[in-house]
Design brief:
The chain folds into 3 domains: 92 residues, Phage tail protein beta-alpha-beta fold, CATH 3.55.50.30; 67 residues, Alpha-Beta Plaits (2-Layer Sandwich); 240 residues, Rossmann fold (3-Layer(aba) Sandwich). It is 24% helix and 28% strand. It has 9 helices and 22 strands. The longest helix is centred in the C-terminal third of the chain and has 17 residues. The chain is globular, with a radius of gyration of 24 Å.
């Protein structure tokens, strides 16, 4: 067991720079971060609301051992953070882990620190980074042997998506209020490994028609791939469409996750634009032996969700993908998605994902997940002004690409094409040489290092 003895806290300015010194109101918690003083007057406060309040006031990332619960009945004034946590958490154990380039971590557990795997969710107050979600849906991962249908019935929900092998399910509720109430109940349910909203991914950036394009359609020299060591790229995006370019030759399978899409033939889809950009990366490596398996996770919708992304990743992985391109993402941190991504990475699958187009010192998910190669965009020798660039950004590539639909050229910009270009370069290098992945990645990090902001 590990108890906090010394805490080094980040400075949080309250009330325009002053320290909150008002008396603690009944049933309240005041965390003076800068002064490292905590006051509380709590009566029967459940663990999850308490930790949510702490996370909101401190900015800490807080993880809890699933299934534990207690109620806080305490009253104290101006204790240090360490002493306050001891009183607030009672017989529960905790470990505080300060971080250098990100928010600090707090683990709360009954058995061991490694059992604290469930993340406390705190909504952002920054409109640019608020994680949007489907208002009446939850995604959950349950432990083996759990009767999901009985659990859903007890909550008044419908199981509208399921993967019994993975133990993940999508539940639909009558309204947002019922969804929020069920989230609170499931967070302390011992049968639930993880539960979260079904987050919405950002919509793809539009393409722009251009005249006098600086380059023509992509030209590929393809060799039939061998059965052993084949390079298959999983493209998880919107639907594709025939473009009349050599990129069409790469696609061996298209999988619909969100229903058949009615493709507008007047302009290239985002998925088609990423396919051609990926092909440009392949072509830069000379003669290549690579194939593409594509999964459409958008269908006819302008947005996709965490659930669809998980199913898309599963589909391309099940069809042999050893490289995966995700030129999309959002600000919703999904433990269920992160867990599945970790499983793919453990199998040796390489995943590239876009950092996002908010121009912020942050990284979208799933690019922010550990082990995923987060790709930013450059403009000339600098970071593109729209590119996210937060901690964990691995490489940065040109954020613009010229693609074709028939004889018409289109320009697509953002971290999306930067990611597709990176995936193509990596897959091409692997398909036509004897380099290991470690050698390829080291060369890419040197060539495509992230410029200082």
């Amino acid at each position: 067991m590990f108890r906090l003895k010394a805490i080094f806290l980040v400075i949080l300015l309250l009330g325009g720079g002053g320290i909150v010194r008002a008396a603690t109101p009944p049933n309240a918690l005041v965390w003076q971060v800068a002064a490292d003083k905590v006051s509380a007057d709590l009566h029967g406060e459940p663990l999850w609301p308490l930790l949510t309040d702490i996370a909101h006031q401190t900015g800490w990332h807080i993880f809890v051992e699933p299934g534990i619960d207690r109620k806080a009945d305490v009253k104290f004034s101006r204790l240090s953070s360490g002493e306050a946590l001891k009183k607030l958490l009672g017989d529960l154990n905790f470990a505080y882990v300060p971080k250098t380039n990100e928010a600090d971590y707090l683990y709360v557990f009954a058995t061991t620190m490694h059992a604290a795997t469930q993340r406390i969710k705190v909504a952002s107050t920054n409109a640019a980074t608020v994680a949007r979600h489907v208002p009446n849906e939850l995604i959950l991962k349950v432990k083996p042997g759990t009767d999901i249908d009985a659990l859903a019935k007890a909550l008044g929900a419908k199981v509208v998506g399921r993967d019994d092998k993975l133990g993940i399910y999508r539940l639909q509720f009558a309204d947002a209020a019922a969804t929020d109430a069920a989230l609170g109940q499931l967070q302390s349910n011992a049968d639930v490994a993880a539960v979260e909203y079904n987050y919405i991914l950002d919509p793809p950036a539009p393409v722009q028609k251009i005249a006098n394009a600086p380059v023509g359609p992509v030209s590929l020299t393809l060799n039939p791939p061998n059965d052993n060591g084949r390079v298959i790229v999983g493209l998880v995006d919107t639907a594709l469409q025939p473009s009349g370019t050599d990129a069409d030759k790469l696609v061996v399978q298209q999988i619909s996750i969100a229903g058949d899409a009615a493709v507008n033939g007047n302009s290239p889809t985002h998925g088609e634009s990423m396919l051609q950009t990926l092909a440009q990366g392949l072509a830069a490596q000379g003669s290549v032996s690579a194939q593409v398996v594509a999964a459409d996770i958008y269908g006819n919708s302008e947005t996709a969700t965490t659930w669809n992304l998980i199913l898309g990743l599963q589909a391309v992985a099940n069809n042999g993908a050893n490289f995966i391109n995700i030129s999309s993402g959002g600000s919703g941190d999904s433990p269920v998605l992160n867990d599945f991504v970790s499983q793919l990475l453990a199998k040796g699958i390489i995943i590239f994902a876009a950092t996002g187009n908010g121009g912020a010192n942050t990284v979208n998910y799933p690019a922010a997940d550990s082990g995923v190669i987060a790709v930013a965009a450059t403009q000339g020798s600098q970071l593109a002004p729209y590119s996210n660039y937060g901690a964990g950004t691995a490489i940065a590539l040109p954020g613009s690409s010229v693609v074709y639909l028939g004889d018409t050229a289109w320009l697509v910009q953002g971290t999306s094409p930067a990611t597709a270009l990176a995936t193509g370069i990596a897959a091409g290098a692997k398909s036509n040489g004897n380099q290991t992945w470690a050698q390829i990645y080291a060369a890419m990090q040197q060539r495509f290092s992230v410029p200082a902001k």
